[in-house]
Amino acid sequence: MTLTYLAASDLHATPWKNGGGTTMELVVRPLGATVGGDFLWRISIATIAVPGEFSCFPGYDRTIVQLDGQPMRLIHANQPGLAAGEQPSEAVLSLMTPYHFSGDWPTYGQIYGPLVRDFNVIVRRGFSTADVRCLTLDPATPILLPASDALLIYAHGGPVNVTSVAGEQIIAQDDALLFEGETSGVTLTRPASTSGILVVLCVLLKASRRQHSQV
Question: What angle do CA 173, 175, 92 make, to 5 degrees?
Fold first, then answer.
């Protein structure tokens, strides 16, 4: 198991080609892969400035969590079983609630306000699955995370105490900690010095059965 601390100050936002927003990539695997290439999974944070189409990722599954702003509306087209003339499905996102959809679907995002930020997880279908959780922490009650093949913890609402076989780490607000390799026994708590509600995003990645069978 290896740990990598991802400081927000070390990450850079990349403008979209259409000028509608920016993306700050937290991690992509394999290392050095690009979204236009053959990547296995990617975690990023996007800032959306205007309504527009999402990039399509055929063969991938997506999870999005809106972090702030007015709830965004997603409109999906070309879904399996959609009859000719039938209206595409729509979903209005709730803040800090994971929403799952296929990267195969052409998707349009309608925003209502100046800016929207969202947390994005994209995994190649058949290679791995992503379990994205938004957890509310308090100082008195540690939360034990399930075992996984990789784990990313993003401290959205404030600093987070993380305890694992590697010891104890503190993740500063807006930073992240990445575990790679079989991971178990990881617990989260909120520092006693903080106040208010603290919500942390956790991404637990597991290799698919097909991937295990190929090893």
Answer: 80
